[in-house]
Specification:
Helix content is 25%, strand content 23%. With 146 residues, it is α+β, with helices and mostly antiparallel strands. The longest helix is centred in the last third of the chain and has 21 residues, at 112-132. The chain starts with a strand and ends with a helix.
Length: 146
């Protein structure tokens, strides 16, 4: 798990300033570059998950018994209401009134390494999409209202 600074959007593997822990938030390693870039482009995020291969129990030999998160998802702050496009395989949804996008990992993947390989592929696809996004059109207005 990485940490991202709320204001500068710097990403570190540990909180850099222990005196200001509230200025940092957790972000999954695989999705951190995408979340950093989304926020820099004005698509401010509320929370996210890159997907995880297992809960507390994995037999370590053949198959994991349960998966913790079978989705990559990103929820945006209330200032983000539209997206110009979506990456292949993703869809929009909401958490209450909050816009979110999701990708569902295939249910037939039960091997942890197969899951991690797929998660890496999908997170890279997501990052490539973020690279091509234009700056959020209402970003300057959103900053004024904050």
């Amino acid at each position: 798990m990485a940490y991202m600074h709320r204001n500068t959007l710097e990403v570190y593997m540990d909180v850099q300033d222990k005196k200001t822990p509230n200025e940092w938030f957790f972000v999954d390693d695989m999705i951190a570059p995408s979340i950093q870039l989304l926020n820099r482009k004005g698509y401010t995020t509320a929370w996210c998950c890159a997907g995880h291969p297992y809960t507390a129990y994995c037999d370590g030999v053949y198959k994991c018994k349960e998966f913790f998160s079978r989705q990559l998802y990103v929820a945006f702050t209330e200032g983000v209401t539209t997206l110009p496009s979506l990456p292949d395989g993703f869809y929009t949804t909401t958490f209450g009134d909050t816009l979110a996008i999701r990708y569902d990992y295939p249910a037939e993947i039960t091997d942890a390494y197969d899951f991690m390989a797929k998660a890496l592929e999908i997170n890279k696809r997501f990052y490539d999409w973020v690279l091509l996004l234009p700056d959020y059109p209402d970003y300057k207005e959103y900053i004024k209202q904050s």
